[in-house]
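Hi everyone, sorry if this is the wrong subforum. Our group has a chain we'd like a structural model of before ordering constructs, and none of us has done structure prediction before. Sequence below.
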Amino acid sequence: MSVDECVAWLKRLHYLFRQLHEIFTARITSEPLYELKTAFSHHGWLCAEQATALRTRVGEMREPPLGLEAVPHPGLKLAVDEVRSAPDATALCVGLYDLLLPSLRESLEEYRQATNPLADAPSVRLSRFALLDVDDMLRFGRVAIEGLATTHESQAMDGWRELLRQSLKCAGGISGRGEETTVLPSPCYSARPWHYDPVPRRDARFHDSYNGGVNPEAFLYDERFSPRDKTLMLFYKRLREIDVPEMMASILVESPEKPWGFHHDMSRQLWDEARHAMMGEVGFHQLGIDWTRIPINYTWSLNLNTQLTAQERHAVLFFIEQGLMPRTGKRYEWEVGKESGVALASLFQDFDWADEVLHAQLGREWYVKGFGDLNSALAYGDRCWSKVMSRWGEYREQGLTQHRNWWPELYANACAILGVPPDTQAAAFCETYETVRADLKEISASG
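Answer:
Right subforum, don't worry. Here is the predicted structure as tokens:
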């Protein structure tokens, strides 16, 4: 193939990876199923990585303007719009893992066979790595569809599958080199404009999600308590971080004007935060503790997503990330994990600390530069967080939670499993989020 032919094909591959990134990201917040929420966080990042690699390669092959933001063909747009508008998790996974990603994989393999392996060696290498990521996504997707769709549901979507196939065929396939059809199918799900849902949703394993009856930060920084006991709060804090992808997804979806580098870097941070939540899940599992018995609060993502703008949410995110950099932040959590005697806690906190250093750097690149100096950026973030109404009392008055103190039960269970006597002071811990937020700063009466 000539350079022009290669570029045209690569731009279509880029379009699909970019659109898949947007679809995965946009469904994280409202997807209740924890495994899909974390998988979408991962797969969105993988697609962002491949989109960035393709952008770089196209830039090497032609002078700007590159035309990477253009829609290559209405048929491709219809296919991705249909999947974006899928009404539930089953249809979404069928569209993603049974149609779009397999078609993308086929096109990547065809490209490797069609291009000259010497002249176009960088693109051949790029496609090989892209196939690794796509295969990982497809392995998960096959299991997800098997777990979600009954035979009847799968058969009922045969007509929609055909619509997607015809949309791609109309475009000459993802490559654009196939025989194009002239008639574009009528839209199904995308006939009604799709809208992002900023309200976080959780599956049935998550309960009492408005509960603010335990302040883990207050326990963590209290010198009266042992590192071993604090490990439980560390694992809780990690698992609770599933609310960060729920919030960060809203920043990405509601910031279409931001450059691609912003979306790429923030997608990495979003996936890191999902990994941190999984670290908490794994930590509890290793200790033999059923984490589903613990209320995992989601009011941070709920309140930020519904009370602040995307810019204000980013400000709060950076303010928190920067606050984790001093010795009392992530280094302290790692030291607690190291001294606890729980090897996994030490390991996870070591990598959690490294991730947060990266996140602070990303914040300086994509947030602080808009303010001119760090102090102004931090002050704005603090003000934005102070604007958030915690509604601690309202949630109780509305019957959404009684802010039950779940800590004594968790602590007693952990001590029984570990075969150690409980510390009476630790067992009596009862500080809440009623008057202080996670950085232990007092909440104003209006908040």
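For your construct planning: The mean pLDDT is 94. The chain has two domains: 3-191, 216-427.
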